[in-house]
Amino acid sequence: MTGVIMQAYPPGCGPSTPAELVALLRRPLGELLPGTRKASALDAVVLLDPEDALSDDAMEIVCDYTQALFDSEDPATAWLPRWAWQRAEQIEQELFQTLIQAGDAAVYTASRRFLIEHPAGDTRELAEARGRSGARQVARYIEIPPDRVFRFAPGADGQCWWSCPVCKWPMQVRGRRVECTYRPHTARFLVGDTGVGSLTAPSLVKVSATRLRLLESHPVVSAVCVDPAVWRFVVVPGVPELDLERLLHSHIPEVGVALYPIKDTFDLLVTAPDGRTWSVDVKDHADPQRVIDDPPSADHVVVPTYRKGQLHQLKRALSGKSVWTIRQFLNEVSDHVARGGSA
Ligand SMILES: [Zn+2]
């Protein structure tokens, strides 16, 4: 690795030993490469966090590029968590194959929606909710991973977990810090003072500035959650897809919204009362280049509000497609409906 970086620099510049390279891994990525290149969205990413573990930001990039970076023989697979080097495509293929085989489009949509809305919970409650929803069980649920469990008293009853207010998957617990490891969810909390040593589960204090619902703790006994890979590659991208569906329903009730109308071809089909339709793909990638390299099939590409910095680059690269934030897309549809569908 040091050799690769040294080659990019003129002789005598840049890191010349592995130790110097490692020191740079704790600095923004932009400092690691010579200044003559084009600026990139990734320049600010720091690879190693203060505990010298792979940072959450770095993990996001890994998730965007797993297929491009690794095959299963790569030595990097020894230090990355198993789910991170499993190819996103492989996970999606396995899961989506099960989904597609699950039945007609209605069962497909119900099963995929169920995973996104119920990525974790009490085993019995999940089974009951699945029964009511018409979804099939298409992914395995596992015990709450140990790094997502808080111990406030001895014994199995002295363990609890908290779901992220955005994606509902268990948040990571590091000492008293409780955070969703998908950074854009900005869910950051601290375990409240009364918790430690108490026999009842502690409550959380919000640290991030974002408006977030404070959720109650859940007992670890009898709780399960989807596999980290299913969370990262199906639940996380699914959250803004369902958000957009919900916002369209509540803001513009006149329009029809079909979620995953042709299984996994595109995400949403929006139909105005005059028959005008919009096919929509919601794209949530840390690096917009990932969307450009694998352009979506829908005519309208919608990015979550926290990705609005990508609009310019996506619009330029995806000619022939319209690119919006969720808010802008809502305005576009609502303006069309308000004009009586005349445009
Ligand atoms: Zn989350």
Automatic annotation (TrEMBL):
It comes from Saccharopolyspora shandongensis. It comes from the Bacteria. Residues 1-121 form the pPIWI-RE three-gene island domain. Residues 238-339 form the REase associating with pPIWI RE domain. This is REase associating with pPIWI RE domain-containing protein.
